Amino acid sequence: MNIYFCGMIGSGKTTIGMRLADILLRDFYDLDQEMDRLLGYSFHRLVREKGWVPFRELEYTICKRLAKVNRAIIALGGGTVRYEWNLDALRGTGPIVLLETSLPDIIERVRKADRPRVNVGVTLEEDVHTIWNEFKAKYYDAADIVYRTSGKSIEQEADELKGILSDYLQH
User: Fold this and answer.
1) Domain of residue 72, residue span
2) How many domains does the chain divide into?
3) pTM over 0.70
4) Is residue 108 part of a domain?
5) What is the dihedral of CA 155, 156, 161, 164, to 10 degrees?
6) Nearest-CA neighbor of 56 among 77, 34, 29?
7) What is the distance between the alpha carbons of residues 130 and 95, in angstroms, rounded to a whole number?
């Protein structure tokens, strides 16, 4: 059984996932990093040069592969759970934990990173708000567990999640 972290870009999936994997002595995979590794270059370049469709196709391929891994902590991409085919690939292989993070925190974190915009021609704030307003129901529907971040240290969050996930961790 795997544990999957989902959430908006900048919600802490990689940071929290890596820390929890360290604590639990489990392998950690980050879907975005797996994509970069397979491409041999940044997925940002794929999106810039070929658009979002090839990105989503590769994302689905990676989801199918990661679903076959066992006892891993996996950080999904920011939009992974917005697509039913990805959820179909992951279903039954472990709980999906939605990291619910305030939009101001997300905006602050994303501003520090060079990430491709989903909605071109708008400000970062407008992009984040648009994505959340349009897709928040999909994030909640995909989640087996919703965990609110913000205002806690990574250590506190990982400890709390270890407790919350204890039933799943025994499989």
Assistant:
1) 3-161
2) 1
3) yes
4) yes
5) 150
6) 77
7) 27
Q: 123 and 101 in contact (C-beta within 8 Å)? A: no
Residues 6+ apart with CB under 8 A from 136: none
The two structure tokens encoding residue 81: 């759970």
Burial label, 40 (beta-carbon count in 10 A; 0-12, 13-18, 19+): exposed
* Mean pLDDT in residue range 23-27: 96
| Strand, coil or helix: 28 | strand
Q: What is the pLDDT of residue 129?
A: 93
In terms of phi and psi (left: phi > 0; alpha: psi -120 to 50; beta: otherwise), the region of 56 is alpha
We report the CATH number of the domain holding residue 36 as 3.40.50.300
What's at 121, amino acid-wise?
G
Interval 28-82: pLDDT, tens: 999 999 999 999 999 889 988 998 899 999 999 999 999 999 999 999 999 999 9
